[in-house]
Design a protein that fits this description.
Structural class: mainly beta
Number of helices: 0
Helix content: under 10%
Oligomer: single chain
Number of strands: 12
Distance between the termini: 40 Å
Length: 157
Amino acid sequence: FSAANAAAFDAGLLYLGRFGSSGIHWSLGAKVSNIGSKIKYDKESYALPSTARLGGSVSIPISTYEVLSCAVDADYQLQPAEARNLGLSAGVEYSMLKRVFLRAGYRLGDKEKGDGRSATFGLGAAVKWFRAELAYLAAGKDKPLRNTWYIPVGAAF
């Protein structure tokens, strides 16, 4: 077996804002990832999957205990050249008491480049430091992980 090696970096910016005293929060962010050298394996070199992303979100309090959040982003696959494509994503989350979450999202990508379209649906719960989530990816035949359930469990301190 041979070892593969490469050097890369990610960089991002995030701006958080608020609309006066209304309780509405918003954010704008940008990120580039996997910017660096080609990965060298044996005698071959391959471009890393570099991506640029731009997005934003808004969180609107519905009541003292409920918040509705919406987010959109656009990403562009920079490398390798044959995989270059633009993707768009949007999602919405309803949270109650910062403990119960309902989510839905949609991804619009280039089917010819292996990204395609997909929808996600999920719910989550948080109690003190413990989080449990359940999500479903609904997609067409072009997505290898189509019709998949995800069940992440974790801790946040």
